[in-house]
Design brief:
100 residues; mainly beta; five-stranded antiparallel β-sheet; three-stranded antiparallel β-sheet; 1 helix; 4% helix; 51% strand; binds zinc ion
Length: 100
């Protein structure tokens, strides 16, 4: 599981190695959005799943993205549900982000 700051995040680029040893790089857009106005953390949660295919061997992976009002996490699992070691290599935030 990799942690990221979910506030105003627009895209996340991740990288992992497929079992065929091909490096898979994927940019996730259309990310889940936490409800920052929720009364508690549980109510603020949102999740999403993104299918990712290895361009070399076609193996299917799923990236699960979880966000709440405090943090974001993501993980990648293979078709057998085994977690794959994933790295976040780039995160783009919306320009509207405010520093407070
Ligand atoms: Zn592959």
């Amino acid at each position: 599981m990799k942690n990221f700051n979910p506030i105003a995040v627009e895209t996340i680029t991740i990288k992992f190695d497929c079992s065929c040893e091909t490096e898979v790089v994927e940019t996730l857009s259309d990310l889940p959005i936490a409800n920052m106005y929720a009364d508690n953390v549980a109510d603020s949660e949102d999740t999403d799943e993104h299918p990712i295919y290895c361009l070399d061997c076609g193996k299917e992976y799923t990236c699960y993205v979880y966000v709440n009002m405090y943090e974001g996490n993501l993980e990648v699992k293979d078709e057998n549900g085994n977690e794959v070691d994933v790295e976040i290599i780039d995160i783009q935030y919306s320009e509207e982000i405010t520093n407070d």
